[in-house]
Design brief:
This protein has about 240 residues and is of the alpha/beta class. It has one domain: Alpha-Beta Complex (Spore Coat Polysaccharide Biosynthesis Protein SpsA, Chain A). The chain is built from eight helices and seven strands.
Length: about 240
């Protein structure tokens, strides 16, 4: 399988850390697509001020908010149309260490048919409720994949083979919002795709440091539960799980 990666960064009211994330991502010689998913559109001069040496920063835009998952699917479809085979996904708010991009790309190059899933190493700044919610969701994901997925089912730093991912979401109607990571890892495992863990730190910048969060505990958790129920029906009809 050929290997031509592209970095995808979805953004919805991401705040001041967006430019820094882009700057660090572009240092690795891989094209970057920023997908602005509605909300407040960043000033283009703020985005490109420190990226003038990059000829491969592409900005895609949704006219209104469609959700993180749909933003990533838009980025994947665009990347596929430009001949790319893999998508490395990053959050825009600085939670994911861009310094680990070479490690993820090297793992994906070595295992091009696999989903390379980041397994977060939490620091003291990690909110306890998020850590425990992840642990519960991970137990469910492992049970639904019969132990084939052993990484974090909510962590967004991953490398996806684009075609299998798009094929799955053509058949599965949910996962277009913050349930994308859970839907993709369970769905791709059910489709027979191998999944490999890659431990990586996760950061939680404070508001004073420019940290932002679009996670809405009630509505997003309800959406996640709905997605898990639909995934259970999907996997029960899929051979091998």
């Amino acid at each position: 399988m050929s290997f031509s990666p592209r970095i995808l960064i979805p953004s919805y009211n991401s705040g001041p850390r967006l430019s820094e994330t882009l700057r660090h991502a572009l240092r690795h010689g891989v094209g970057v697509s920023l997908i602005i998913d509605g909300g407040i559109r960043p000033d283009p001069t703020d985005i490109t001020a420190s990226e003038t040496d990059s000829s491969d920063l592409c900005i895609l835009e949704h006219p209104h908010n469609l959700g993180k998952g749909q933003a990533l699917l838009t980025g994947m479809e665009h990347a596929l149309s430009r001949g790319h085979t893999h998508a490395l996904t990053l959050d825009a708010d600085g939670q994911h260490p861009c310094s680990d991009i070479p490690l993820f790309l090297a793992a994906a190059r070595q295992h091009p048919l696999a989903l390379i899933a980041g397994s977060p190493l939490f620091g003291a700044d990690a909110p306890w409720e998020r850590v425990w919610a992840r642990r519960l969701n991970n137990l469910i994901a492992r049970a639904m994949t019969r132990g084939r997925f052993t990484s974090d089912s909510l962590f967004g730093m991953r490398v996806y083979p684009i075609s299998p991912c798009l094929d799955f979401f053509k058949k599965f109607p949910l996962g277009r919002r913050l349930d994308f990571e859970t839907a993709s890892c369970i769905g791709l495992c059910a489709s027979g795709l191998p999944c490999l863990d890659l431990p990586t730190p996760v950061l939680y910048p404070s508001k004073a440091e420019g940290g932002t969060s679009n996670y809405r505990y009630w509505s997003d958790n309800c959406q996640l539960i709905r997605c898990l129920i639909a995934l259970r029906h999907y996997t029960s009809r899929t051979r091998g799980l």
